Amino acid sequence: MREPTRDGQRRVLVRELPDHLRRAIVAGVPEPPEELATDTRNVLLTLARAWTTLDAGGIRSKDAAAERVAARLPAAHRPVLDHARAVHLGDEDERWDELGVRPCAELQVRVIEESYAS
Q1: 4: which of 10, 62, 63, 73 lies 20 to 30 Å off by Cα?
Q2: Using an 8 Å Cβ cutoff, are 31 and 109 in contact?
Q3: What is the number of other CB atoms lying within 10 angstroms of the CB of residue 57?
Q4: Beta bridge partners of 2
């Protein structure tokens, strides 16, 4: 299956991830993410990419993955991922004081592990 991207290129989507790739992605997700305090944005975006790769079979850009996952998160966690995406795109400053970063990351880890580990 081919899906157009924003720049007009086409990317190939895998209908179903091979088991070895799925296991490798799940195994690479630490609990809790150790770098969360020092590399917050990238940890959140990496978790979003892992989730969307497992869910949809294709590797998305960080901002596309964040957008897709944010839409699936409970409302309380959406601002965290929306902010990570905005920081990544250069639209906002990297400030995490007021946001519930750890609960958002832990939820993503839990979904990845519970839904895709086997």
Answers
A1: 73
A2: yes
A3: 16
A4: 12
Length of the chain: 118
pLDDT bin (cut points 50, 70, 90) of residue 114 is confident
Instruction: Give the chain's count of helices (H) and strands (E).
Output: 5, 2
Give Cα separations from 79 to 20, 29, 49, 82, 118 (angstroms).
33, 22, 17, 5, 31
Residue 104 pLDDT exceeds 90:
yes
**Sign of the CA dihedral with 103 first, then 105, 109, and 114 last:** positive
- Count Cβ atoms within 10 A of the Cβ of residue 78 and give its class: 0-12 exposed, 13-18 middle, 19 or more buried: middle
Alpha-carbon distance of 59 to 3, in angstroms, equals 12
Q: What is the pLDDT of residue 7?
A: 54
pTM, full prediction: 0.81
